């Protein structure tokens, strides 16, 4: 397991470096300069030169990259061109809100998808299975924003039960103080990932149920519910865990959309605004944060896999 | 009152395509301490009978009214689920075929063995754990207490099967159903597991139902035989009576179609043509009629009833008398295999339509492979506009082949690179028209060696030479040209054919790769090939999944023949096939060899199959060739203790021979090929090992013409030392 973890961590570090190089290159090769975006299109050449000099934009790209990495390692991502605040402060403020939104919806999605998938596998090809399959595919094929808007239309505009806007409080504590506003964004994201998860769980549980050891468990005299709990569940979750790690980017995309629909100031909105205003420091930092989060997500999935699967835990190499 | 009394057991399974009549009117009784065998080909309802007794039918399955299963007088059919669960794993337990997939990979074996104890016995966890230790001890797993916390993947196949048996025995059941418990295991481990089952049965006074397709296992391990065919009992008798006086044609043919060690390999195996009927819609009358050589009009209309006396019953209108006589081994004249009384023709239906002799061959006249030793190497070279190799040069020669695979996974710093010693210095040669058989336990490097021979893998050292030309020295066109002479046929007829290609395309592919002929000629060749392996031409437009396993293996052979190769390396060509289909494919292989003067390297874990096909045999152990010689020398006069052990482990379908068996199968399992033992690699399992075996690697020594073995203390006296034998197994001409 140690060797396995070392190997995975090593790979994760390499991926993060790759993400940094790639985003840095992409942003700096893009036409249109930060100066123009910040100072307006009618800025004079001198003012642009001054801006570039002040922000180090006139130096060669490799040098700029080295500086960026050095500062990033100290938690210094520079100052936002447009918001005139330290980037690290912006991220520190918004990241926890996303963690809350995504964490809640993933947990909720799993809590529903696992029993649903196993149930469908056990009752394979029954009417209930078919209905749930149709529901899952409908959810799966609906665009995220459409979903959000639909829920807003129903629960806020029609029924006036829930606010259409997410809580605007700055701190996580503040948000939790008024959880009603969180309901619609969380439900939207949950439904979006629920569909995929339940499909994975279903197909994985179907193949587990066909395994010889399930028959052996029944031959021991275990009741069906015991067979499911003790021998089917864990083995069915193994492949799902890996997939969970791989879907992290899709979940982040979903978050960006949910944030704009519900006006929830998280990383997604920050990133979106930075991209339109060519706010390089914010763009770089938020790309990096999302990249790292994705890598950490799949690393966590690998660790979970290792814990669930003794074949990896006891890998003696 | 019998312990288990099964009457008129009938099981149906409703599927999307209709109702499968899996078990039909099966009755038997079983006493404590007795072993009953359910014998037959795959799909004949053996497992379904076992599962019906356990009440463990698949979805859609049900036991028909009128069926009765009484355990000690208590009716189990119709028992509420709760009550039935109390019987399962407690009074009746079951062991399944594949130990690799029968254990939950995420739980320790201790927990899995304790599970049924906790469930049925209302005891503490600690007590259940103690019981697990006892059960593991009972099944002969060394250091059971330390093994408790192991996960399944940390055990070998044989150890896992022991753990599964321990699990079944944990509650001391009164009936144990063992469903093909050794089919997935090596022959050596099979012998160990069968001995174990016999000893625990005796010790616990259990009754046992042993399900098997293997007539050898039947002869040595069963008291009463029940032959099943298409869901019905075809014949039942005490084992001795059965083997000496079988009355049902199916029993007779089933026994006759098994290649066996104590039988002369000359000639063709009698086969059972065709396949068992589809149980969705079984034929009226006798279910065997379609394949039975004695079938009459009555058989096709009137269902034969199971009748007889003295505990010997059979369901047949025209019973036979006893088995097909077995040709005595050794020097029997070829015509000794001619059908005796009660014997039918030996041809099988598909190849009976074949043109008698190589009508489609692109090559010069072939000769029967066994016309007294190797053929002159020039017979086939003519049409290939290649220089005839010098006389005495073997067709294919492997010299000192070495292949080592790095161990997968991360290499921790400071540790030496670790390798699997898959093939370690193997040399042998193959003459034109000859068959060389390679046997050994799983993981001994047989398949790796096969891949090296055909160039699918490159050796780390050593050479493979065809007609004296080192294949490793060839490049580009010359190499491709040579490659055409070497082809491989794989074990699994399901995965070795591309499922998305039509058979016609599969057969044309090698021709296209080597740009042989025009498109029209390629199509014609594909049609020829189909005829040659006994398949209908319309099969060219079908996909592989539309064929049965045996037919797919025929397609595999046809593909291998497409480029008229001279050597075919067949890796476990019949292991995945059922007994009767296996005989058909073996006959086909012999026929093709005779027609084309082909040379075969046949790789198999099954000594009887190798004995049947091969002129010469090489025995592999842990990457080394420990003995080579003529099939007869190796099987009748083995010099190496490992060869003798392998031979002793092979079950012979003759109860008297089984009882009279002298030698012992090797104990234990092969060690890790990453760290093979010093000196003689077999020494950790060898009954004759001495100190010298650990220090000094035995060099091959000659024991007769073409017969060599590498052992310090061989079972027979070697020939006087020859000065030039160093390092290489001597290749003295055969016979
Ligand atoms: N591609 C590979 N990479 C790593 N190890 C391999 C590879 N192929 C084979 N081995 C290892 O080499 C050894 C010999 O394997 P091989 O498959 O040749 O044996 P075998 O006798 O044919 O076994 P079986 O009867 O089970 O097919 C085994 O320990 C196997 O795990
Ligand atoms: S009843 Fe007829 S068809 Fe059936 S086995 Fe006997 S002879 Fe053959
Ligand atoms: S060399 Fe020794 S250990 Fe090896 S087979 Fe011969 S007697 Fe046994
Ligand atoms: Mg193999």
From TrEMBL, chain A:
Q: Does the keyword Transmembrane helix apply?
A: yes
Against Gene3D superfamilies, the record matches this protein to: MetI-like
Question: What CDD domains does the entry give?
Answer: TM_PBP2
Q: Where is the ABC transmembrane type-1 domain?
A: 95-301
Localization recorded for this chain is: Cell membrane
What UniProt keywords are attached to this protein's entry? Cell membrane, Membrane, Transmembrane, Transmembrane helix, Transport
- Give TM regions: 12-29, 99-119, 131-162, 182-201, 237-262, 282-308
Annotated InterPro entries:
BPD_transp_1_N, MetI-like, MetI-like_sf
What Pfam families does the record point to? BPD_transp_1, BPD_transp_1_N
**Source organism superkingdom:** Bacteria
Q: Where is this protein chiefly located?
A: membrane
Q: How does it sit in the membrane?
A: Multi-pass membrane protein
Record keywords: Transmembrane included?
Answer: yes
The entry's family comment says:
Belongs to the binding-protein-dependent transport system permease family.
**Entries under PANTHER family matching the protein:** DIPEPTIDE TRANSPORT SYSTEM PERMEASE PROTEIN DPPB-RELATED
The molecule here is called: ABC transporter permease
What organism is recorded for this protein? Actinacidiphila acididurans
UniProtKB/TrEMBL annotation, chain B:
Query: Where found?
Result: Cell membrane
How does the record say this protein sits in the membrane? Answer: Peripheral membrane protein
The parts of the chain that form a coiled coil are none
Q: What is its main location?
A: membrane
- Which GO MF terms does the UniProt record name? ATP binding
In terms of SMART domains, this protein maps to:
AAA
A Pfam family the protein falls into = oligo_HPY
Q: Which residues form the ABC transporter domain?
A: 4-255, 396-647
Q: Where is the composition biased (Low complexity)?
A: 328-348, 362-377
Domain of life according to the entry: Bacteria
**Keyword terms, alphabetized:** ATP-binding, Cell membrane, Membrane, Nucleotide-binding, Transport
Which family is this protein grouped under? Belongs to the ABC transporter superfamily.
**Annotated protein name in UniProt:** ABC transporter ATP-binding protein
- Specify the species: Actinacidiphila acididurans
